[in-house]
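A favour, since you know our structure tokens better than I do. Could you add the entry underneath, on a fresh line?
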Amino acid sequence: MPRTAADIATHLGGEVVGDATIAIQGFAPADSARAGDLTFAENEAYFTKAEQSAASAILVSGNFTSATKTLIRVTNARVAFAKVLPLFFPEPAFPAGIHPTAQIAPSATIDSTAHVGAFCVIGERVKVGPRVVLEGANHVGADCVLGDDTRIFPRVVFYPRCLVGQSVRIHAGTVVGSDGFGYVFDQGRHLKVPQIGNVIIQDDVEIGANVAIDRAALGSTVIGKGTKIDNLVQVGHNVLLGEHCILCGQVGLAGSTKVGNYVTMAGQAGLAGHITIGNKVTIGAQSGVMHDIPDGQTWLGAPAQPDKQAKRVMLSLQRLPDLLRRVSEPERQLKATGTKPS
């Protein structure tokens, strides 16, 4: 439904500069915006494009001014962008109820406000909380708990005894609680160590598509409150992942790794098992972490090192071809005179 610039400013805690009554019907990037759309600009280049676009209003932070566009000024344009999008693109509504093709164990408890989609399988003693959405083809093993307002996309699988908090989102194809990779070598073969623990996912976690989170051998693998996990991430058994962490695509955490709060791991970073990562650590893309990292540090490279040291190594490697050429010329001259290099 159309909203005025004043309505949106009130929702965002911002202010209108220009026509507060102008109707806003949608949200679009500057290069495809039409009359009636809101767009956003977080820097000078974006603002120039937005002002030249057909958009009716621009969401900005800072002291931008315009003679042609209504501005909605906020403290942080990117944060406001995240908050305003649901006004124009709300989440789909799922009606309460259980699809006739779903298979529900007699001892399972499904809240009356939950949605259980087609071909879901709900095991014994499972508890599904208020307003939970299981979109379809989900398997929820025995003794799992799914907390209030959690949304599970199609084909997500929970092995038994997984505990999921409130307002969790888990995307298609993810497996929670599969066996940890635990074996001992005995009499010429790899003997499986039974994995009898579980997985605990705390509140406000979002997990991308095709993620694998292994159950603990003993105890729990834990994903901390507010943590966001990208697609194709592997979390090993007994990992303790802290609160409000960011794990980008293809990150891998080996078993029994302990990760603090507010840690960021860029794409394809890999962490060895049984190490401890401190709070507010940043790990660069494709880094191979073999050692503990103290609080607040940034590490890069494979094997990973503190960022300043890693950058010195990278710069040295770039100079290596030139150095080799410089060294090879004296060696060639010595060989030409019949003198052996010392």
Summary: The helical segments are 5-12, 44-52, 77-88, 307-336.
